[in-house]
Hints:
2 copies of one chain form a homodimer. Chain A contains 9 helices and 11 strands.
Amino acid sequence: xxxxxxxxxxxxxxxxxxxxxxxxxxxxxxxxxxxxxxxxxxxxxxxxxxxxxxxxxxxxxxxxxxxxxxxxxxxxxxxxxxxxxxxxxxxxxxxxxxxxxxxxxxxxxxxxxxxxxxxxxxxxxxxxxxxxxxxxxxxxxxxxxxxxxxxxxxxxxxxxxxxxxxxxxxxxxxxxxxxxxxxxxxxxxxxxxxxxxxxxxxxxxxxxxxxxxxxxxxxxxxxxxxxxxxxxxxxxxxxxxxxxxxxxxxxxxxxxxxxxxxxxxxxxxxxxxxxxxxxxxxxxxxxxxxxxxxxxxxxxxxxxxxxxxxx
Amino acid sequence: xxxxxxxxxxxxxxxxxxxxxxxxxxxxxxxxxxxxxxxxxxxxxxxxxxxxxxxxxxxxxxxxxxxxxxxxxxxxxxxxxxxxxxxxxxxxxxxxxxxxxxxxxxxxxxxxxxxxxxxxxxxxxxxxxxxxxxxxxxxxxxxxxxxxxxxxxxxxxxxxxxxxxxxxxxxxxxxxxxxxxxxxxxxxxxxxxxxxxxxxxxxxxxxxxxxxxxxxxxxxxxxxxxxxxxxxxxxxxxxxxxxxxxxxxxxxxxxxxxxxxxxxxxxxxxxxxxxxxxxxxxxxxxxxxxxxxxxxxxxxxxxxxxxxxxx
Lengths: 311, 311
């Protein structure tokens, strides 16, 4: 049995590190996290060689994750030197970004507190500049990761000379080899794709435009049209950044209605990666017109509550 | 942390005992089960005074449930005498019926084996006649609980003189005070009600008829019309006996279509009691047209797998 049993909260922490080619380095960085906090679990570890970047998914309670991340950043600083790092993905630091995501018995506010606590510790322990982003950001101009990362590691020293880019914690110039780290809190992301019964990419593009925030669509939707060449169809590829406020079923129904306008059918949809149970229960609830939230009645949730009981 | 952690399978066992008025007796019977197998959990215990009957819901692996049930039946035999028992609900024994239901890492076949093993043990330990029912039944004529129970405790001695009602295990006459026990395996039941925007009970009745098996509807649906006087509406009250073969969304859509024929809307629906996650995911999948089973992608299921890992 795992230490999870005594965890009061379950929070996901998904550090993105700037190493996706040297597997031994990724393993060492990963193991540094777990060695420092044995209660922390690794849910996933995915390395991309072209991006030269790895995405690690940890699960644990707040205090364990803080210990794990402090140790992990130490190991990453020791083994990763951004001065010689090359990869397709934009990055600012050896550990580029660390978001906290609430899963069970934890709120977004808890994750914001964790982000601040971790930022402070990374700065004081390693002399690393830390920027807070998303829900942990100190101001609106700091919310967007792309804005913080613009200029990348190579442009960071110059960027940080501008008082507007003073970090939230730590020195006002980059760590020589590890750059800076962006820490924050965000809602779980859902990657959701809807497949259309046509090979016409223009239709997928138009529907993507109709649903995405930037062009007038839903507040928490990013979308684009994608060709699925092997299947000879097109897809509306969607990132849902807040499934509570912009639920799957609403986006699905809108895509269906927009597709019908072109005489095109939705022939299927797919979830990529993990999805919180609540996102799917909300869709079942919507279509079945359930009068209450079914989550407390789901048998598996009783098992989960028993397994992760703290008393 | 609970012993569940080391359970290879998770099976529900829902003994119905013929005592719903003396709370101390119900508690003693319940505790006898847990004392004999500390790994077994009590999910629920509901007593009905008019029925003079209690429904206990246990969760555990096969061997633990067998130990728990053998001990529980012993306590029930000691404390419940059917010769003086009165209640509205039909019953055959002090412990009337014990179904096993597969939940995780267990099949219907596992539950059939458990039912047989328990039947044999109850017969040899207590000289109790045991009938197997539902999926554990030795023949089709023994599947239906109502058929086995017809005549009740009071008619049991006479009924058992008929070779057709020789029990599957144990003596060919009733236990003097405890009657007989019916043991079996069944699929999880879902109680699902659909509310209609009308006060006309005739419409609910007609729709119930349209969907229930007995009058030409779905194979695994029992249904009737019910008045909800306080809300001034009617309801199609449904028991779904196999949500895999007759899923919620199919029944919902049929009720919706039948209601529309009368110009009536479905204004809501509700699940009563517990529901397996898979039943709701299937509905989400149907309406969102998901191409694969989303269960392995549900984050909570990863947590559950980790909590109940056996290695």
